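G.,

No rush on this.
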Amino acid sequence: MFSLPRLSKAVLSAVLAITVLTVHTEAASVIPDTVSMPTPVFEPVFDCSFLFPANLQTNNFLDGPFGRRAFFPFISGNFTDSKTGELVATLLPALGGGFGINSTVDAKFYVDAVMVIQFVDDNEYAYLKLNGIGSVAGHASSFYLVMETASAARQELAGQFIIFSNIFLPADASPANETQAYFRMFAKAIPTTGSTTDMFSLSSLSKAVLSAVLAITVLTVHTEAASVIPDNVSMPTPEFETVFDCVFLFPANLQQNNFLDGPFGRRAFFPFIEGNFTDPQTGELVARLLPALGGGFGINSTVDAKFYVDAVMVMQFVDDNQFAYLKLNGIGSTAGHASSFFLVMETASAARQDLAGKFIIFSNLFLPADASPANQTLAYFRMFAKSSPEGSFLGQ
């Protein structure tokens, strides 16, 4: 964690103005010692095997105003426990699908998908909404997932920040007339000292066995560990690195003044007063938030009390004056005043094209009134970009 001496309320009030007006020449994080914002750590939850139609690239895209729109139907699929290999849930076929966009500008694939699964132990359903970024050339993506379910055993999981990673296998490694894909679901975990991540192993599977894996795991419940993801498919646990440290100001008393009661829960309307983005290593100002634009419009669920982040903001980089549009979706808590969310960045800044093409996570923390400037709410944000590789097929 970066260190600053414990800041007084008056100094906290001045932090934003100082960093907006000046560019630091020495390392000085805007996030003080009293605020903990650790790099997110994830652990595998489910390993999944999916079947799609063959020749998706040729047959399952249409040309639209935003790029090439996908329409990927699910043939079948399953979710197995990453540790035991036991069947946990089956995908409902002929429902939902992948509807992402292959951008004609940056060639990235922007994931937009929906699916419904059924758990085998309690027969409850779960609705999964997926958004993320990846590549059709590399056939792999990472995406943020929201789970809605009445399954009592999965309420804790549904309340966590979840990432899905996938890899689509080539035709010669898939069953005849189908496309084999593997998915791995990761849930955000509390970092532990000295923890390690183990890759699961199976002997390399022949094409015939690949075709049979799905049917076998759907029909049986394993009694010993056996991952459906074979050795020749790499799906590493996601790792992240810090990109920006941020300090934002909002109006005071958000809980009392900036929620309305709606059909889905308490809808937030959080206006941005001002904010900045600084380099976590040098403390230099990188970008400013455009005030009086965008805002936070998430929902505080009246069912599970979670806060479902839905926000938009625009920032301007100080070096090239280019703008960036940020769309944020995630999950957190109004009680704990902290959330994690997936972020999509759109920008013409040449220096940020690599960043905009990565899977990005934002974490935040809203400070209480007695730690914020008078008549305002102080919040710290930290942006992380995925640094680990996407999944890959290692060959036959």
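When you get to it, here's the other one too:
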Amino acid sequence: MCMSSATRTRTLPSCKTLRVCAVFVNGFVCKDPKLAKSEDFLFSNLDKLGNTSNKFGSKVTLIDASKIPGLNTLGVSMARLDVAPNGLNPPHIHPRATEILTVIEGSLYVGFVTSNHENKLFSKVLNKGDVFVFPKGLIHFEFNYGPTRAVALASLGSQNPSLIRIGESVFGSNPFISDDILAKAFQVDKKTIDWIQAQFASTS
């Protein structure tokens, strides 16, 4: 069994099937198959509420190859999403994975934007039991417009889906992207850009 987070789409053979296993992938080392145990395939306590007391009012608990070593090379992971009333899982991208999400408590307004020149928004209000798909690499979000906590479970098509939050990446980079560049890109004045960057700097 490998304890790594390979990111290629093609399914790789598990090191558990190999006699010799001394391969590193993305910083994780394969484990001697003789030392593999049931706990390498287990994660507990996903039923616990996520702490949503933050600026966005949401919490994502990601279960990937770093949490379950046995996921390595299997091309799948999952996450629990908790969203407080008026909370948001802000616009973000998973560069390596398609995501399929189902609401198990409350309601969520979700959507994604296409990558073509039309920038079309596909969105829907999801209630308990509803399922929605976010294609790989597209900007998407989840917002709880309701009066109670919302909880959802998501499956992702990679053991290491990665995460890029749009706002934090653009306005909270280290060091900052030049306000000249961002002012031109967003067609606003530099003072506006400086103010937005300050919000991300003060809450990072």
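The domain at 51-160 is CATH 2.60.120.10 (Jelly Rolls). Confidence is low (pLDDT under 50) at residues 3-9, 16-20.

Enjoy the weekend,
O.
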